[in-house]
TrEMBL record:
Belongs to the leucine-binding protein family. Residues 24-365 form the Leucine-binding protein domain. The lineage of its organism: Bacteria, Pseudomonadati, Pseudomonadota, Alphaproteobacteria, Rhodobacterales. It comes from Albimonas pacifica. The keyword Transit peptide does not apply. Keywords: Amino-acid transport, Signal, Transport. This is Amino acid/amide ABC transporter substrate-binding protein, HAAT family.
């Protein structure tokens, strides 16, 4: 009899343990923690965790179920990202995944989400093809895409009489970015006259700059070199050191992380468009993010902190709306879903699951009391201001 009681008690404990395990919402963050984009990755993870915290009122629970975030480092290797996402879905039994940083890694991961029939929220990889030709119905993206970057920058630069050359990295991010920028610029009076692509690890831009200068030196009108770049190398400063102004060429680019912004001090008055700068959006979520980030880390939140937070907020909103973590219920809940972020309103477009969102036309201001250049707001470009193509 005692043996029966012990066995019954053991079975009860096992059932309770199983129940406790099932009362978890597991999320994988699959991203490049190490490698050239480590700074982006750190911001993204900080933002993700702060987004989950804000959306759950600090409990890190949804309807009594604890959120568990499992981190996996792609090291910016596409094959590793693919394998780690499969491991997260298969072995770790996550409900969904967030990441990665690199567009090349993201493109390798997309088919894994389809194979396992589980959601991947892409943040912050940018290439258009992620929600374009390589997209599948399990992919949602909170990050902006190349078209959103391109259209907002085309609005900022595409004026009458302007001739533009581009300098970009020779991989998905750079090529998709230029293709989208070229398309967007076609709707303006400006003209794209030259495209230059260099390897992602380029540090000597002499040859590329000379080709650009030769292509533009004899042109009339206002001449701009638009740089699309992620990570190190500092192409803007290095090209500027070759004095493009002798050919009447001015450098232009989009926004960047704060660590890159001191280099922008060389370009007072430069115009472009940015995804985020902590002083621009005026809303309660951004106020909380700025206040808490400065209190915890002694610095303002950055580009990808805001993006990571948008992803975390989307996760909680989607699970609450779906009433659980069933994939089909989540897809139904997320298609057309609107939610508030540090940038204000975002909306998942039903056709391609791209998050529509504001971008910001800026003009660079230099303040000697601030260590980086300040992208002062010229105009907020809202969801309604940008016609983002559907590419799938």
């Amino acid at each position: 009899m005692k043996l029966v009681v012990r066995l019954a008690a053991a079975a009860s404990l096992a059932a309770l343990a199983a129940g406790a395990a099932s009362a978890e919402i597991r999320i994988a963050h699959v991203y490049g923690k190490t490698g050239p984009l480590e700074a982006y990755a750190k911001q993204s993870h900080t933002g993700l965790m702060m987004g989950l915290e804000y959306a759950t009122g600090g409990t890190m629970e949804i309807d009594g179920e604890k959120i568990v975030v499992i981190e996996k480092d792609t090291q910016l290797k596409p094959d590793q990202g693919k394998a780690l996402l499969a491991e997260a879905y298969g072995d770790d039994d996550v409900a969904l995944a967030v990441g990665p940083v690199s567009s090349g890694v993201a493109l390798a991961m997309l088919p894994v989400a389809e194979e396992y029939e589980k959601i991947l929220i892409v943040e912050p990889a940018v290439a258009d093809s992620i929600t374009g030709e390589n997209w599948n119905r399990f992919i949602f993206r909170t990050g902006r895409n190349s078209s959103q970057d391109a259209i907002s920058n085309a609005v900022a630069l595409g004026k009458e009489g302007v001739k533009i050359a581009t300098l970009a990295q020779d991989y998905a991010f750079g090529r998709d970015g230029v293709a989208a920028f070229k398309e967007a610029l076609a709707g303006t009076p400006a003209e794209l006259v030259h495209e230059e692509y260099v390897p992602t690890d380029t540090t000597d831009f002499t040859a590329a700059a000379e080709r650009i200068f030769n292509a533009m030196k004899d042109l009339d009108g206002s001449k701009k070199l638009f740089v699309i770049w992620a990570g190190g190398g500092n192409p803007m400063s290095k090209v500027n050191a070759m004095d493009p102004s002798r050919f009447g060429i001015e450098i232009a680019t989009g926004g960047n992380i704060l660590a890159a912004m001191p280099a922008y001090k060389e370009f007072p008055g430069m115009e472009g468009a940015t995804y985020y700068y902590y002083e621009i959006p005026k809303n309660p979520i951004n106020d909380w993010l700025v206040e808490q980030h400065e209190a915890r880390f002694g610095s303002p939140p950055d580009f990808f902190t805001a993006g990571g937070m948008a992803a975390g907020l989307a996760v909680v909103e989607a699970i609450k709306k779906a009433g659980g973590t069933d994939t089909e219920d989540l897809i139904a809940a997320m298609e057309g879903m609107e939610w508030q972020t540090p940038k204000g309103l975002m909306k998942f477009r039903a056709e391609d699951h791209q998050a529509l969102q504001s971008m910001y036309h800026f003009k660079i201001k230099v303040d000697p009391e601030v260590e980086w250049a300040i992208p002062e707001l010229v105009r907020e470009l809202t969801i309604e201001d940008m016609d983002i193509p559907i590419r799938n």
